[in-house]
Amino acid sequence: MKKYGFLIAAPQSGSGKTTVSLAIMAALTRRGLAVAPFKCGPDFIDPGYHRLVTGRPSINLDGWMCPADVVRETFSLHTADADVAVIEGVMGLFDGIGSSSSEGSSAQIAAITGAPVVLVVNARGMAASAAALVKGFTDFDPRVRLAGVIFNNVGSDAHGQLLRQSLAAALPDLTLFGCIPRDELLAIPSRHLGLVTAEDNPLSTGFVDRLAQMAEECLDLDALAGLGFESAQAADCSRLVGRAAPPVRIAVARDAAFCFCYADNPRLLREAGAETVFFSPLDDCGLPPDISGIYLPGGYPELHAERLSANVGLKRAIKSAIDADMPVYAECGGLIYLSEGLEDAGDFVGAFPARARMLPKRKALGYRQVEIRAGSIIGPAGTVARGHEFHYSEIGTLPDDIHRHYRVTRQDRELAVEGYCCRNCLASYIHLHFGSNPAIAPAFVTACRRYGTMLQDHTKQLPA
Known about the structure:
Layout: E1 5-9, H1 17-30, E2 35-40, H2 45-54, E3 59-61, H3 68-79, E4 84-88, H4 106-113, E5 117-122, H5 128-138, E6 146-154, H6 157-170, E7 175-181, E8 190-191, E9 194-195, H7 205-218, H8 221-225, E10 248-253, H9 264-271, E11 274-279, E12 293-296, H10 305-310, H11 312-323, E13 328-331, H12 333-338, E14 339-342, E15 352-358, E16 364-372, E17 384-391, E18 393-395, E19 403-410, E20 413-422, E21 425-428, E22 431-432, H13 440-461
Parallel strand pairs: 1-4, 1-5, 2-3, 2-4, 5-6, 6-7, 10-11, 10-12, 12-13, 13-21, 14-15
Antiparallel strand pairs: 8-9, 15-18, 16-17, 16-19, 17-22, 19-20, 20-21
Helix pairs in contact: 1-2, 1-7, 5-6, 9-13
């Protein structure tokens, strides 16, 4: 069956991809279409805004973290019940992990999925030069099909007319989907490297309406919604079949403090035999009942340190679970939450005997490859996985009896020995994508199932 949709890319960051993507998603959703949103790369923040305007989870597509067949499977799965797919790109269209490799780029995702590309060009201060720029993008990579252009930050009707004429003269067969005027009121505030999270800055109905109205007035939405994906290599979804064994309950933290989680990670846990039960470290006084494992994703715990510190009941429940050898997997903000706390900002769980501190400058950013050095709850020694690291904090020195299970590299360059292990608890600053290695989710589910079985056996042996 033919799939409809497109990938929104740009020559460089700051061109307006996110605003344009949200406007189109909002407008098409308001027309009654089921819009499947996606985000190229490892970003967590943009997908939160996609979810707000479409009502559907936004899925990360990353050709460096995940093999091409996993990207195709993921895309096929999440577009099965959609009318149109909208993929927001990352950085510039051809910008990937290295200077020449397309790995991790929007172009790589376009090639894997067969997505037509709509190029958003920041036309501020340009006329004929904008057409020259677009022309360079049309034939840079024969695997990428440029379907058309949207000019952003257009200063006036006269400026728009100049852009139209220049593009028509240079590329008469390329579609101009519209010109978007400058509007500072549509800017979304930033924090750190990216935007403020959707949880901390929920878009008002009026703001979303303004985005949708702008798209209706300025863009040819009918033409955009009619773009079709070229038939890429068929996806093999055979491994996406539920397991026969009874599900094992795994508690997954999800709230404003813990909102950085690849949407496919809980899905892959479910496909491996888990029942994911979501809970809030901000609001819940205890863990969900009958669980056999805990997953603490990342987020911004530093912004909610007072509430997290005050929730003593949940902190004690998690510490008791770790002391009882329950499998616990934590990433970035989850690692911070398992430490003794932030310096001068209250106490956290205390499973790792050190405090975290926030730094004035970014501590780490980029893709990471992890090789597991010793058997762990996510796989045996030698298991390789990929993910992304981004944080402004650091953990104080941990004692030697806290084992380091990860050998971390980036493009074969040694970075660190990390992956802190305490009993059956594994925590790291790296956000692993479980799709990077199909054995990770089953390994964690198996560890949780083993713990649950052991707990049941122990309960049966207790005197009545």
